[in-house]
Structure formats: C-alpha cells, structure tokens
C-alpha cells in the first residue's frame, strides 16, 4: 500500500504562494513570467494547471519545486519557506520532499528500471539501504511495471517509461508530486494509462500538481487553475 504524507486535520495548505513574481533577465531584455501569484494547495489535492504557451505554467511548477527562485514573494511547501534556501539547501530539500515528473521521462539510459529508482533513493532518508530494493520493487508493482524491473529504458514504450518515471518520483515518499506535461509525449492509450495512475495516487492521498495542455484531462483533476499572462485568471472545482 502507498504511504501518504497528507495532513487531513491541517487547515494550512501544503503549498502556498504569496505574491510571487518571477522575472527573467537577458541581453534581449526582461520578461516577467509570474505577476503576483497567490495560490494555496491543500494536502491531498489533485490540481491541474492549464494555459496557453507562455502563460507561466512551467515557471509556476519550477518555482514550487525550487528549480527556479522567485524574484520576489514567498513560496512555502509543507510549512518550509523554500524561497529562503540557497542552491545546496534547495537541492537537498527537493530530493527528499518532492517527486518531479517530466514530459520526456529523464530516465538514465544505462540503468534498468529498478536501478533508476534505487538511484533516486540515494537522495532521501526515508528508507535504509537494506530496505530500498524491496521498496523499489513495491513501487514498480504499484505502477504495473514489476515485470520490467531489469529492462533498460530503451526497451520500454513511452507509456512504460513514464510509469517507471512516476515510480522514481515516489522513491522517497514525497509530500508533493509535480508533473509538467506528463502525457505530452504519449499516444492516447499510454496517456490514459498514466492518467489513471495519477488518479489512483490522488485517491491514496498524494498531493499532485499537473501542468497539461489537454483540457479534458485537466477537468478530471479535483481542481483546475487557469493561467493567463503570468496571472491566475480563474479556478474551478471539478469534483
């Protein structure tokens, strides 16, 4: 059974952004990707983030995971003000507290499925070294990939690779899962397989933030946030 880090009795959001601004500066000028964003995501919520290209969706996820630092404002995840962290602190925190899922899987090609998960566990403190192989196999079973544990990514389909990537994101039992266009590189059958896995994880109490361009998928999340030009234009509860 999947362990949950949800806090059902807490009124505080697991993720909270307060007046977050993110401006990128380059030789071509400045571009403000986020413009005073306020956001709260409760523990155990499954939230989709939609918007046109350039609306700030990926930047929002990157700020929440500490990949990008806000130009101003506060980013608080599980009561930790990560906007105050330096690069070393944020890397340690992210490895232990957040599961990040990418559009193009980002599995290491020379490692098998189970080895990719075991490597991720090196960044956490949740399991001892003797517990890790069993837990890695348990995660592969959870995503329906146990029989492919000793296969290299190149021998797996796109959907299978993404399922392994989701298992890897769960390696350290993170409080938060983020996914940036996780089905954007998949066919319709693989998309449905991966999304059903997200729904199962959400039902178990995992907090999930998912960026998607697919409005139909977005509506299957519990709540949808629409970004327009770096601002939250509207939010709606789907179920």
Structural overview:
This protein has 239 residues and is an alpha/beta fold. Helix content is 30%, strand content 27%. Helix 4 (132-142) crosses helix 5. The radius of gyration is 17 Å and the shape is globular. The protein starts with 14 loop residues before the first strand and ends with a strand. 42% of the residues are buried.
Cα separation of the termini: 24 Å
Q: Which sheet architecture does the biggest sheet show? A: 6 strands, mixed
Low-confidence stretches: 1-11
Structural class: alpha/beta
* Percent in helix: 25-40%
Task: Output the keywords.
four-stranded antiparallel beta sheet, 239 residues, disordered N terminus, alpha/beta, single chain, 10 strands
Write the layout of secondary structure elements.
Blueprint: E1 15-26, E2 29-41, E3 46-50, H1 57-65, E4 72-77, E5 80-81, H2 87-97, E6 98-101, H3 113-121, H4 132-142, H5 158-169, E7 176-180, H6 188-203, E8 207-211, H7 215-218, E9 223-228, E10 231-237
Parallel strand pairs: 3-8, 3-9, 6-7, 7-8
Antiparallel strand pairs: 1-2, 1-4, 4-5, 9-10
Helix pairs in contact: 3-4, 3-5, 4-5, 5-6
């Amino acid at each position: 059974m999947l362990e949950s880090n949800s806090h059902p009795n807490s009124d505080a959001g697991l993720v909270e952004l307060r007046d977050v601004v993110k401006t990128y500066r380059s030789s071509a000028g400045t571009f403000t990707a986020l413009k005073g964003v306020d956001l709260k995501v409760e523990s155990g919520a499954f939230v989709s983030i939609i918007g046109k290209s350039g609306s700030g969706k990926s930047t929002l996820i990157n700020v929440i995971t500490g990949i990008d630092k806000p130009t101003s404002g506060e980013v608080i995840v599980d009561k930790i003000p990560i906007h105050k962290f330096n690069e070393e602190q944020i890397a340690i925190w992210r490895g232990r507290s957040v599961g990040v899922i990418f559009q193009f899987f980002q599995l290491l090609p020379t490692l098998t499925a189970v080895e990719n998960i075991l490597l991720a566990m090196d960044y956490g403190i949740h399991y001892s070294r003797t517990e890790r192989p069993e837990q890695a196999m348990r995660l592969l079973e959870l995503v329906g990939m146990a029989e492919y544990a000793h296969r290299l990514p190149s021998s797996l389909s796109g959907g299978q690779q993404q399922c392994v990537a989701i298992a890897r994101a769960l390696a350290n039992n993170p409080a938060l899962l983020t996914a940036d266009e996780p089905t954007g590189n998949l066919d319709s059958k693989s998309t449905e397989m991966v999304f059903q896995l997200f729904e199962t994880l959400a039902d178990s109490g995992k907090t999930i933030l998912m960026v998607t361009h697919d409005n139909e998928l977005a509506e299957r999340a519990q709540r949808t946030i629409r970004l327009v030009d770096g601002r939250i234009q509207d939010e709606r509860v789907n179920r």
